[in-house]
């Protein structure tokens, strides 16, 4: 643990030396402090990093600093990068690097494989794993302000010194349970660049398309793309440009004039004449002029077989029993969609619960239950499984 006064790195020579130290370890723990409440792109304010015998705080807001050496460290595939709840940190580094860091270890997912908790917070994880309590009084600091106080800096560095100790403990426990491969499979999804795609042309996929009609779909996709591009150009959150309900209503009503926009409920009065609405009418009109060219290709709806009454509920009981017995968070084994598909009789590799370790732990039992080869009963307030 760091002692004495912490001084964030603000000079290039300091960063180069720190990256050399960090590169000596087989893993590096990483955390960031950032702001994005009023911006589209996250504003990186602080980077904290640690390896087995070294920790450091980097100030990316320093005008004297180019953080390229640290980004190169994150890109090195020979070293594990450890995060907690990695998604937002990965999004930041994906933009800075052009691709996500890897390989990674997310302690929040590792906690699920150890049965510690589902989406467990960092402070709860540290309390559970290390029996330490974290002072959270600096949690809502304005990290853009300079200079930072000693209290703020000590809080920040704790995010990677406690994380280092927790990772070592969790890695050991997962290895003892032969579950490192389980966690590794989950990390692959976080390392997929498609997860961080912000291309305007794909923006419609973040929203629920309510109708299959071609004109609706064309306007829906075009307005979603327009909003995404405008948010990026203005560096404003999507909701500050146009709310999701407004995108839906525009696709429904297909307004092509200022008067038509003024009649919409979800679009603020006068919005269409504001600087943020530049090009919106054209986006709607262009989509209506060529719906075939602007409507996204949607997967064909398939008729789902009826779900046998009680089947999902039985599978959920089985899942709870299996997860309790293995000390794993149920959602890591199977989610609600998996349960519904299995209950309807669907099979295949597109159902994670029926593949790999999940199949061995739960999937094969689920199929046996539905085929009458496995039964459930209660004994002493516990679920028991019986082969028939």
Question: Could you walk me through the main structural features you see in this protein, from its secondary elements to its overall organization?
Answer:
By secondary structure, the protein is α/β, with parallel strands linked by helices. Helix content is 47%, strand content 11%. The protein contains 17 helices and seven strands. The strands form two sheets. The protein has a five-stranded mixed beta sheet with strand order 3-2-1-4-5, sandwiched between helices. A two-stranded antiparallel ribbon has the order 6-7. The longest helix is centred in the middle third of the chain and has 27 residues, at 150-176. It is flat.
Could you name the key traits of this structure?
388 residues, alpha/beta, Nucleotidyltransferase, domain 5, DNA polymerase, domain 1, two-stranded antiparallel sheet
Give a quick precis of the structure.
With 388 residues, this protein is of the alpha/beta class.
SSE blueprint:
Elements: H1 12-22, E1 27-35, E2 43-51, E3 54-58, H2 68-75, E4 80-83, H3 87-97, E5 104-106, H4 107-113, H5 122-130, H6 150-176, H7 180-190, H8 214-234, H9 238-241, H10 244-253, H11 258-262, H12 280-289, H13 291-294, H14 311-326, H15 330-333, H16 336-343, H17 356-370, E6 374-379, E7 382-387
Parallel strand pairs: 1-4, 4-5
Antiparallel strand pairs: 1-2, 2-3, 6-7
Helix pairs in contact: 4-6, 5-6, 8-10, 8-12, 14-16, 14-17
């Amino acid at each position: 643990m760091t002692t004495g006064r912490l001084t964030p790195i603000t000079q290039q020579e300091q960063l180069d030396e720190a990256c050399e130290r960090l590169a000596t370890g087989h893993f590096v723990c990483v955390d960031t402090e950032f702001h994005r409440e009023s911006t589209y792109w996250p504003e990186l304010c602080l980077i904290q990093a640690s390896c087995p015998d070294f920790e450091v705080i980097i100030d990316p807001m320093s005008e004297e600093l180019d953080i390229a050496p640290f980004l190169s460290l994150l890109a090195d595939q020979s070293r594990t990068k450890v995060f907690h709840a990695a998604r937002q940190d990965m999004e930041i580094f994906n933009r800075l690097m052009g691709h996500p860091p890897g390989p990674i270890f997310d302690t929040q997912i590792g906690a699920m494989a150890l049965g510690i908790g589902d989406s467990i917070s960092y402070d709860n994880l540290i309390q559970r794993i290390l029996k330490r309590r974290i002072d959270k009084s600096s949690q809502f600091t304005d990290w853009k302000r300079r200079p930072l106080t000693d209290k703020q800096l000590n809080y920040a560095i704790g995010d990677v010194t406690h994380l280092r100790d927790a990772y070592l403990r969790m890695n050991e426990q997962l290895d003892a349970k032969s579950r490192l491969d389980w966690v590794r499979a989950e990390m692959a999804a976080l390392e997929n660049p498609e997860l961080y795609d912000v291309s305007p042309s794909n923006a419609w996929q973040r929203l629920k398309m309510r109708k299959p009609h071609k004109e609706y779909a064309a306007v829906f996709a075009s307005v979603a793309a327009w909003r995404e591009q405008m948010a990026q150009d203005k560096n404003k959150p999507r909701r500050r440009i146009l709310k999701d309900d407004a995108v839906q209503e525009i696709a429904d009503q297909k307004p092509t004039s200022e008067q038509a926009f003024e009649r919409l409920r979800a679009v603020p009065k006068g919005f269409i004449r504001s600087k943020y609405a530049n090009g919106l009418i054209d986006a709607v009109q262009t989509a209506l002029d060529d719906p075939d060219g602007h409507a996204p290709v949607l997967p064909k709806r398939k008729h789902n077989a009826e779900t046998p009454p009680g089947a999902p509920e039985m599978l959920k009981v089985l899942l709870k029993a299996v997860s309790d017995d293995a000390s794993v968070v149920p959602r890591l084994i199977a989610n609600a969609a998996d349960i519904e598909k299995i209950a309807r009789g669907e099979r295949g590799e597109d159902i994670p619960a029926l593949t790999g370790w999940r199949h061995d732990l739960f999937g094969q039992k689920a199929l046996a239950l539905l085929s009458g080869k496995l039964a459930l009963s209660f004994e002493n307030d516990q679920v028991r499984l019986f082969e028939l």
